[in-house]
From TrEMBL:
Presence of keyword Repeat: no
Protein name from the UniProt record: DUF418 domain-containing protein
Keyword field: Membrane, Transmembrane, Transmembrane helix
Pfam families in UniProt: DUF418
Transmembrane portions of the chain: 39-60, 72-97, 127-147, 154-183, 225-244, 256-274, 294-318, 338-357, 369-387
InterPro entries recorded: Bact_Transport_Assoc, DUF418
Region (Disordered) residue spans: 1-26
Domain (DUF418): residue spans on this chain: 241-405
Bias kind Low complexity: ranges: 15-26
Length: 419
């Protein structure tokens, strides 16, 4: 099981909208936005949605049926889209804290409250879809409040690299090779009491199992496969990108982005091609079950990171060049990430699960692919229609209003937006 959803709300700074109280007491309306961040987030959200539909919102893992479509979609986007969203979350944190600092305010307590709200939203969403990651993103987000006090970008970047290379998996590998019992025990994430309910239970049974029992395999997965530490590393990287104004001044990075893009592509291809031979080679060394599992997880972690870097740099390159019109439409859904993320589950979980239409057993991979692509097109069009009339998505507005404990956060646009 690889539940990889995610969400992040960018608000404030470098041209991103902010909801801080304005001069008249009401929360300020949006200013100009950093479109490139919205495009990146929109791309990640749509890619993540594609993965979710192809895997039938996790039911695929009850009886895997490998095929060309599933293999290609998973290889291209699984783990990468989630990582892009986590990266954007770290950048969003910088935006909020930096804007508050420019006003001479400390946003620490407000951001902590904002994270608690996200925990609550994530809990409600997890009752529908146990793959929700908002709760995990929010919990790890509290660590950003500590790391933000470190002023050295070099230290933060070093911490990000340390987290991203998979230190917890390296510890598991060494411990497993040395015969540690805990490292060589069967993976707890392989025990999934929720799956039988999703395949055959009614709505009430799904809601009940998702209160806790169904969530356990997800959290074990994050712990056993290094995802918790990876998220922190992506947060720190997003924070550094914000501090260095990477997204606000793309021209400054043009010189190194092209070779970095090529390097990420080469690394991703090499890891994809060699990971299975490497797994077989390492298994032949007979270090034990725990070491074998950790080594395989490391290979996949590094592959996901190389793929994440490739997609991020490719989307930015397209945006920062003559092909911008190809990715610009993704900015609108990127501004509705939280609303769309929850809405996608609310619509498609009942389509696939037993208590709804039960299409998991009826739709083959090709059908799921076409349904996902059609739904992505609808979401892009609907996002543009919505944002021409409203300043925020409905759930973004609720989150923002609760963050500031006020109802006067602007919602409707006074005049239809252009473009």
């Amino acid at each position: 099981m690889r539940p990889m959803p995610g969400t992040a709300d960018t608000a404030g700074a470098h041209g991103t909208p902010s909801a801080e109280p304005g001069p008249g007491g009401a929360a300020a309306a949006p200013a100009n936005r950093l479109d490139v961040v919205d495009v990146l987030r929109g791309f990640a959200l749509m890619a993540l949605f594609l993965v979710h539909v192809i895997e039938s919102y996790e039911l695929f893992w009850a009886g895997e049926k490998p095929g060309l479509i599933t293999d290609v979609v998973f290889a291209l986007f699984m783990g990468k889209s989630f990582s892009l969203l986590a990266l954007c979350f770290g950048f969003s944190f910088f935006i909020l804290m930096d804007r508050a600092a420019q006003r001479g305010q400390d946003f620490t307590a407000r951001f902590a409250w904002r994270l608690l709200l996200l925990e609550g939203i994530g809990f409600l969403h997890s009752l529908i879809y146990r793959g929700d990651i908002m709760q995990t993103l929010a919990a790890i987000g509290f660590l950003l409040l500590f790391f933000n006090r470190i002023r050295s970008n070099a230290v933060l970047l070093g911490g990000a690299v340390f987290c991203l290379i998979g230190p917890s998996l390296i510890v598991q590998l060494v411990a497993g090779a040395l015969g540690a019992g805990w490292a060589n025990a069967p993976a707890q994430s392989s025990v999934d009491p929720g799956m039988p309910v999703y395949l055959g239970g009614d709505l009430w049974q799904v809601l009940r199992v998702n209160l806790w029992a169904g969530q356990q395999s997800k959290y074990w997965f994050f712990l056993e496969y290094g995802r918790m530490v990876q998220i922190l590393g992506l947060y720190l990287l997003g924070l550094v990108l914000g501090r260095t104004d990477f997204f606000g001044n793309l021209a400054k990075s043009r010189g190194w982005r092209r070779p970095a893009l090529l390097g990420a592509l080469v690394a991703a291809v090499l890891l994809f091609v060699t990971r299975e031979p490497l797994r077989l080679w390492f298994s032949g060394l007979h270090y034990g079950l725990g070491a074998d599992r950790a080594f395989w997880a490391l290979l996949n972690l590094w592959l996901d990171l190389a793929g994440t870097a490739f997609w991020a740099l490719l989307v930015i390159a397209l945006y920062d060049g003559p092909a911008r019109r190809l990715v610009q439409p993704l900015a609108a859904p990127g501004r509705l990430t939280l609303t769309y993320y929850i809405l996608q589950s609310a619509v498609f979980v009942p389509i696939f699960y037993h208590y709804g239409l039960g299409k998991y057993a009826d739709w083959d991979a090709a059908t799921r692919l076409w349904v996902a692509l059609a739904a992505i097109a609808v979401q892009i069009v609907a996002a543009h229609w919505w944002l021409a009339r409203f300043q925020y998505g409905p759930i973004e507005w609720v989150w923002r209003a609760l963050t500031y404990l006020r109802r006067d956060v602007p919602f409707r646009r006074k005049a239809p937006a252009r473009g």
